[in-house]
């Protein structure tokens, strides 16, 4: 089953591409790789959470943010290549988590993105990943996600 059909089966709608908030483009393509810009947890034109994980935002809310960021990254990729069925595999995910100094659950937050990719792409969704704690992210969001995907040539 292709990614587009799997998303439909899961009842997940790929959103419109979130417009850049600065001077960059949502994706960059080179050869058979597509890199996304960092994607924020925007849904229906609003950030679904703001603040730091471990203070203003719970781990569960941050997990949902990571999931939304990954979905937004897929939207950007789809706009670039036309169909998510042309993704051969997810190569790498980088998940930035704005958190308090004592919060150490960044990998659990990052699972929000990783698990969505696994649900949609199966084995092709297995990827290398970095989950990085940072002091602040753009617009005071708690999570930002970047993806690198391999596409059909």
Q: CATH H level: which superfamily? A: RutC-like
Q: What gross morphology would you assign? A: globular
What is the tally of beta strands? 7
CATH architecture: 2-Layer Sandwich
Average pLDDT metric: 97
The computed structural class is: alpha+beta
The largest sheet has its strands arranged as 1-2-7-5-6
What is this entry, summarized?
The protein has helices at residues 3-10, 59-81, 106-121, and strands at 27-30, 33-36, 42-43, 46-47, 87-98, 128-134, 143-151. The chain has 3 helices and 7 strands; from the N terminus they run H-E-E-E-E-H-E-H-E-E.
Verbal overview:
By secondary structure, this protein is α+β, with helices and mostly antiparallel strands. The protein has one domain (3-14, 27-151): 60s Ribosomal Protein L30, Chain: A, CATH 3.30.1330. The chain has three helices and seven strands. The strands form two sheets. It has a five-stranded mixed beta sheet with strand order 1-2-7-5-6, covered by helices on one side. Strand 3 (42-43) and strand 4 (46-47) form a beta hairpin. Helix 2 packs across helix 3. The chain is globular.
């Amino acid at each position: 089953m292709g990614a587009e059909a799997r998303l439909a089966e899961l009842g997940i709608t790929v959103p419109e591409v979130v417009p850049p908030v600065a001077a960059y483009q949502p994706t960059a393509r080179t050869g058979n790789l597509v890199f996304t810009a960092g994607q924020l947890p925007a849904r229906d034109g609003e950030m679904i959470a703001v603040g730091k994980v471990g203070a203003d935002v719970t781990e569960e809310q941050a997990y949902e943010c990571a999931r939304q960021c990954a979905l937004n990254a897929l939207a950007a990729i789809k706009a670039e290549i036309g169909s998510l069925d042309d993704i051969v595999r997810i190569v790498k995910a980088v998940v930035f988590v704005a958190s308090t100094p004592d919060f150490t659950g960044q990998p659990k937050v990052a699972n929000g993105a990783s698990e969505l990719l696994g649900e949609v792409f199966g084995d092709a969704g297995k990827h290398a990943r970095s989950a990085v704690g940072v002091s602040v992210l753009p617009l005071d969001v708690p999570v930002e996600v970047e993806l690198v995907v391999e596409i059909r040539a």
